[in-house]
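Subject: for your reference before the review

Hello V.,

The reviewers asked for a structural picture of the protein, and I figured it would be easier to keep everything in one thread rather than splitting it across files. Below is the amino acid sequence we used in the manuscript, unchanged from the supplementary table.
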Amino acid sequence: KSRLTVNHMQFIDLQSQYRRISDSIKNRIEKVLEHGQYILGPEVRELEATLANYVGSRYCVSTGSGTVSLEMALRALNIGPGDEVITTPYSFFATAEVISIVGAKPVFVDIRSNTFCIDEERIEAAITPRTKAIMPVSLYGQMPDMEKINEVAARHELPVIEDAAQSFGSRQKGFYSCGLSTIACTSFYPAKPLGAYGEGGALFTNDEELYQKFLMLRNHGSLKRDEHLLLGMNARLDSLQAAILLSKMEVFDDEILQRNRIADFYTRHLGTLCIPPQTEPENRHVYAQYTIRTPKRDELQSLLNEEGIPTVTHYSRCLHEQPALTMLGHKAEDFPVALACSRQVLCLPMSPYLSEADQEKVVHSIQRLAKKL
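And here is what came back from the structure prediction:
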């Protein structure tokens, strides 16, 4: 019987969340179906106002994905061939992908092993006359030291683009992720702490000129019919996804509290068996992932899999190791901290609806299996 229960453990539980807010979601979807404005309908405008207010940003522009948000940020800043953008080698591929797609060069700076985020102290040394932006990634659910990054950027008159795909809802010194930089980009991929039921994303800024560019870029460079002021793209969020996200915002803060309670439980019971994730003193983590480190990562993952406990490696290969970026000419050991983390990280089941029984199964299994490693 216990094995049957374990086999049904989910890495991320979206069904329980849906059961909690299904009435709200159905009501909002019904309204969209009734008014028929499926693209950029009233729900999109309501969502943008809600998100901007939440993070304390003047403007929010919703988009078709987190990836296209990052690309739009770069295009709005006129970043292209010959330019450099400083970022981390330890992130999802989209971070470096969009820099390369616009023709610029990703310049990697190694990470801190305690937060998995870019090492703020190493950024300044990587700045050259070609540097046009700094793009830190708020990985796994917490921000790097944005105050330090902004200070470096200000000294060199550079914009900061926060890749906040995994950190919406996190805080630092009382301020929210997406509200602490020139531009911030987030993702509403279904597995994110605030996820849609399809693709989606958003951009945040306090700069009115950038805001107007975002509005044009997401809609083929147009603000009014048959007039295209620049080369844009189709990056609009549909009204159904906006409706779903509005329903999810109703329970979002409570879900963050639940994520932190589960993370605390994991950390209390696993701290002597592995390196648990560390939260900086003035940060609130949203635990998009609960990521441990262990030199025996592959062996532990295999044993947990045999017990029906799902785990994921985010990320087992650094960006500078990716075949698509060989033109950068890096060796694997060029960024040793990122390389070490990529070989040791393991993400455990995490969602606000992970039952106490499942939390205990994860902990007890690791405690028992650690003796075999």
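For the response letter, the relevant points are probably these. The CA atoms of residues 221 and 232 lie 4 Å apart. The radius of gyration is 21 Å.

Happy to draft the paragraph if you're swamped.

O.
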